[in-house]
Amino acid sequence: MLTKATIETTPEFVKNVYEKSEKNISKFRNTLKRPLTLTEKILAGHLEEEFLDKLLDEKKNYVFLRPDRVALQDVTGQMVMLQFMQAGLKSVTLPTTVHCDHLIQARTEGKSDTKLAMYENNEVYKFLETASSKYGAGFWNPGAGIIHQVVLENYAFPGGLMIGTDSHTPNAGGLGMIAVGVGGLDAAETMAGMPWELLYPKRIGVYLKGKMSGWTAPKDVILYVAGKLSVSGGTNSIIEYFGPGVESISCTGKATITNMGAEIGATCSIFPYDKRMETYLNSTNRKEIASLANDHMSLLQPDPEVEKTPEQFFDKIIEIDLSTLEPHVVGPHTPDLARPISKLSDEIDSNDYIDKISVALIGSCTNSSYEDMSRSSSVAKQAETHGIKAKIPLLVTPGSEQIRSTIERDGQIDTLKSIGATVLANACGPCIGQWQRPELKDGEKNSIVTSFNRNFPGRNDGKRDTMNFIASPEIVTALALGGSLSFNPLEDLLEGKDGKKIKLSPPEIAPEVPANGFVNTDGIYLPPSEDPENVEVLLDPKSERLQKLEPFSSWNGNDFTGLNLILKAKGKCTTDHISPAGPWLRLRGHLDNLSDNLLLGAVNAFNDEVGKAKNILTNSIENCSQIARSYKEKNMRWVIVGDNNYGEGSSREHAAMTPRFLGCAVVIAKSFARIHETNLKKQGILALTFESSDDYEKIKEDDKISISGLSDFAPDKSFECQLEHSDGTTEKIMLKHSYNLSQIEWFKAGSALNVLKNKTS
Predict the structure, then answer these.
(1) What residues contact 286, with CB distance under 8 A and at least 6 apart?
(2) Positions marked catalytic
(3) Architecture of the domain defined by 560-760
(4) Hey, which CATH number is domain 329-502, 3.40.50.150, 3.30.499.10, 2.40.110.10, 3.30.70.100?
């Protein structure tokens, strides 16, 4: 039975990880017979024994790893626990925590919003609390903070490996940890004691030199990298930062950078252990772990040769001079549309951006550190001195109760409030569509600026017409004072209360941790029960929000013939488009009800409509979920066709589960985002890519699609696909896949969960 002590990252636990890592790294080094990157060291430290003597090829080698920890948030965590229960398991086998951060909607301000959320979501919270208590997981109450910030404050440690059911799990890379966002079934399997499977990642090195100054912040590093690599440039890669500039960035600044690595499709991002991490560990009551890390520096940094000749160790290298890096702004609608703030005003007219900003937002898991809030407060203090208020609403989202209470004690909150800021709950809120904006009319175009991480259409407020730009918290604070995108705080003037023109000075150098320590918080964490047999998991069979899962059917042994096309997605199709958040978040534990959001945000290539397609049974244009349900009633399986990087963005496995529930057999795309491809495979959907991407154009709206050769399903073997057009003509195209033998087993069994259940029954 797990107890609170084992859930915590104890010095004894870390010591054991380091001892195992030392042995594994030594074996792996003998195999490779060369120096190792930090990425290779941490992966080797957690590899199953059978892989330590292999020369791993990132193009085809799947490896099995043993993570040190699993973290779940309250939305994805519901499905993880439901799947864990379906598998018939008694207890988690490694440290696991559940964090209630996604379901608190931003309405007015933090305290009232949290109180209302606890009332509205009581059923879900009680399910998660009792399931955690029974199955050995730690439970963080609503209001405790955002999963990634809480993990950084309490559980992350240098050289560790963790997985989490949120795409921004890599936030822990700021503490030298390989931390990877995964689908819920990945988590459930690992919680059950199975190893975690990963395509061995490529390595991208980012060499940092110089030192930031003035307005430039760690946020600008990742915004610059996103502009260089694009939203898919990091796919199946770990981004490793190195070079003399690394130590100039605080631990929490490093976490900002690794957090947003998710926006370039990276498996994760990581920094080497240094004095800045030691400072943070000491400040968060983990001095013994810092001491252990200091004693094992060789495990927690790349070999010296890596920095000397990086081209020998990385597939791609990006070099950044922090001394000359300008503050950047990215967006709208994609995190890789990057430019220095000095260039933004030139783009406003030519791109029809709305110059007037409607709302500015700072904080979140990405940028609410003590350092971030202090730098934003420094900007606000200058304005307060001259009687200047924010021209627009300024919303502040603390990343955790520890952060909120500390910046309340030390005055940053009061300073921000002095210029008109409103403090929201310690939750995700406006970052994930949980943001109520009654002042905004339907279809009203507007611009917002945030220090968050993701900005796909509809992401923040559910409004596709909102243009969402991302910058550092200090730049966002300054833009709130200026009120427009064309305002450049590095150059432009503000008018004080006395009519005098002033220019904002760069924010003061801020302490990375508070001089008086962080405020200790109580009553926000519940350990698992010491008597789990007597804990009843609260799951009402009549619930509209939670639904017991039923196994998906296994493959019937036949080829897929005459499948209908539901939708051919045009352009960017993220998991936010496939299974939107916003008001749908409340239904993430009820697969049937949630499935009504199927492809609700996807653009149909045949008519440019959003979320609608042609029902071949009625010949009418309907919502995709309606079409899918009508096909399901008649036992008709169907296909989705996607564009490049299909399924990018969030780790939500619901974007695979809802199509599977409604009868999807196959998804064909030009390319897949890593997590979504895995999620499709896990749920028993056949995930295929075009051998020739031009074949995307051959698929017509009324096609009947057949895929042959399923009985001979094998690694590296392509499938023949026949397209039967409505005019009676046919075409044949070839489709590829990336399945290995165990993943083929998932397909045949109907899902990876069915395989897990068979193994544990």
Answers:
(1) 9, 157
(2) 101-102, 166, 454, 650, 652
(3) Alpha-Beta Barrel (3.20)
(4) 3.30.499.10
